[in-house]
């Protein structure tokens, strides 16, 4: 047994049985070890950002960490943006990064880089294995670190010689890290605050789906407080029967209006709401100046215990949460707008669908239209580094093979990680990608206006538009092995989306929005 064998066996013993990978020469012994253990599912991505993004979604949907396999400092650097998003989503992830053999490092070979510095900026835990005998123990500690605090990023740097030299057997699993809990007086204070007029329970993370969401909804029903969350959340359950949770918006002034009557805000599994960016003469946080904020349970604490304690303190046992109704819109007709896309999706997407959403400017109309569709999960991008939708769709489909995955995304965003289409085809994943083609980074035109720039000249337009030449998404999809279809009106989108929902396997729909055809720019 070598070090790589001991690491793979340690991962399997610890319940880590999926590896999203883009390996290179320094990882070949690890590849061979994976080959000797077919119970580990290996999924190849053609770009490291797709690899790490898929691992992010895998944890969001299963609650278990996946491993990634990356090649040296440049490989980790290529995956950095999606690891950043995973960190903001509080996903558990174990990155195995190959390094040159220890004796080779002093020669400063072309691919040598400072992996530790790259990893340090985005990992909660990182380590360089000292020798082959340490690899298994390091792997066990990486699993423990990734599962700590409700989900963290662990990065294990594996010099090639530690993978190929002789090693001991797999390491035993370590006990989980104990989660901290609020004090009883803090729970009582939170319960009292929630009974006051103008109270809001602000939640995030696992409180947005499943049993935790129902418990939070029961607390809100019993106390009369509002139940609120952020816009860009890791995962939220929506649709008929899901707990009714208010979501904030992107513009900070809209959130100021939404929260203007809040006088007491209890944070549970969430940080204080904050604007995505700073603007002249606009606040960084949308909460009213006089609002009292009680940080009851931060995202790394024992959220389940805290919910139970707060439910008991408020007498919420037996209370039924407010839930969303089934309210399907009529089939759209006419011009192809984001609202029409959302209406078609709401009318046709099946029960249990998973939406990996990164439509940016088109996202809010789609979110509004689908809120009361059939029950589904919505995965957003808490980290804001664009290019998330396609890798998230890969990870969600691997995690939940029996569910239809839908990825509405902007055309500019999708270009960051379009290689994920190939992985969808290779793995026969049941994913429908909807590219909202407005031919540019339209969000940035809005940001220019928010910063007081009234005119968009030639240079700015050249940096914001992607219409010369136009991206041909049907051709791009075909080149990656995914059938594609372009539509230009609501009826065409309705027909294409109906076909995609009825057909297993990957599909891509290029929805050319009407405003792009009218203006010639995004």
UniProtKB/TrEMBL annotation:
InterPro entries: THDP-binding, Thiamin_PyroP_enz_TPP-bd_dom, TPP_enz, TPP_enzyme_TPP-bd. The keyword DNA-binding does not apply. GO terms for molecular function: acetolactate synthase activity; flavin adenine dinucleotide binding; thiamine pyrophosphate binding. Keywords: Thiamine pyrophosphate. It comes from the Bacteria. The keyword ATP-binding does not apply. Residues 370-510 form the Thiamine pyrophosphate enzyme TPP-binding domain. Signal peptide: none annotated. SUPFAM superfamilies: Thiamin diphosphate-binding fold (THDP-binding). CDD domains: TPP_BFDC, TPP_PYR_POX_like. Residues 1-106 form the Thiamine pyrophosphate enzyme N-terminal TPP-binding domain. One of its GO terms (biological process) is small molecule metabolic process. PANTHER family: ACETOLACTATE SYNTHASE LARGE SUBUNIT ILVX-RELATED, THIAMINE PYROPHOSPHATE ENZYMES. Belongs to the TPP enzyme family. This is Acetolactate synthase large subunit.
């Amino acid at each position: 047994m070598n070090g790589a064998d001991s690491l793979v066996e340690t991962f399997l013993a610890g319940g880590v049985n999926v590896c999203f990978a883009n390996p290179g020469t320094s990882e070949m012994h690890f590849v061979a070890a994976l080959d000797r253990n077919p119970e580990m599912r290996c999924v190849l991505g053609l770009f490291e950002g797709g690899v790490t993004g898929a691992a992010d979604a895998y944890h969001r949907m299963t609650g278990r960490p996946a491993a990634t396999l990356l090649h040296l400092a440049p490989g980790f650097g290529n995956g950095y943006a999606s690891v950043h998003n995973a960190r903001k989503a509080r996903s558990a992830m174990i990155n195995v990064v190959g390094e040159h053999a220890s004796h080779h490092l002093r020669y400063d070979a072309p691919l040598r880089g400072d992996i530790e510095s790259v990893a340090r900026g985005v990992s909660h835990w990182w380590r360089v294995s000292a020798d082959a005998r340490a690899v298994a123990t390091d792997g066990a500690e990486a699993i423990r670190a990734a599962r700590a605090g409700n989900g963290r990023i662990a990065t294990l740097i594996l010099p090639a010689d530690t993978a190929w030299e002789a090693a001991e057997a797999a390491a035993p699993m370590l006990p989980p890290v104990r989660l901290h809990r609020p004090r009883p007086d803090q729970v009582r204070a939170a319960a009292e605050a929630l009974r006051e007029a103008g109270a809001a329970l602000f939640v995030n993370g696992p409180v947005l789906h499943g049993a935790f969401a129902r418990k939070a909804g029961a607390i809100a029903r019993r106390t009369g407080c509002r139940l609120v969350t952020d816009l860009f959340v890791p995962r939220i359950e929506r649709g008929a029967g899901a707990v009714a949770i208010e979501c904030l918006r992107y513009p900070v002034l809209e959130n100021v209006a939404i929260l203007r009557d809040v006088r007491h805000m209890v944070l549970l599994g969430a940080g204080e709401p904050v604007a995505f960016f700073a603007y002249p003469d606009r606040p960084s946080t949308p909460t009213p100046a006089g609002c009292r904020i009680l940080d009851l349970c931060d995202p790394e604490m024992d959220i389940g215990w805290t919910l139970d304690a707060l439910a008991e303190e408020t007498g919420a046992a037996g209370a039924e949460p407010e839930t969303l109704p089934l309210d399907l819109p009529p089939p759209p007709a006419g011009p192809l707008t984001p609202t029409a896309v959302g209406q078609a999706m709401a009318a046709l997407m099946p029960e249990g669908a998973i939406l990996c959403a990164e439509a940016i400017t088109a996202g809010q109309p789609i979110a509004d239209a689908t809120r009361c569709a059939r029950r589904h999960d919505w995965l957003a991008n808490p980290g804001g580094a664009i290019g998330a939708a396609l890798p998230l769709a890969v990870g969600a489909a691997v995690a939940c093979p029996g569910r239809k995955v839908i990825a509405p995304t902007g055309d500019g965003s999708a270009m960051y990680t379009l290689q994920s289409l190939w992985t969808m085809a290779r793995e026969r994943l049941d994913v429908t990608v909807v590219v909202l083609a407005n031919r540019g980074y339209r969000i940035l035109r809005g940001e220019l206006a928010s910063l007081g720039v009234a005119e968009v000249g030639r240079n700015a337009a050249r940096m914001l538009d992607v219409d010369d030449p136009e991206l041909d998404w049907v051709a791009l999809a075909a080149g990656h092995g995914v059938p594609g279809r372009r539509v230009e009106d609501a009826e065409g989108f309705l027909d294409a989306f109906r076909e995609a929902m009825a057909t297993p396997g990957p599909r891509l729909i290029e929805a050319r929005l009407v405003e792009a055809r009218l203006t010639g720019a995004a």
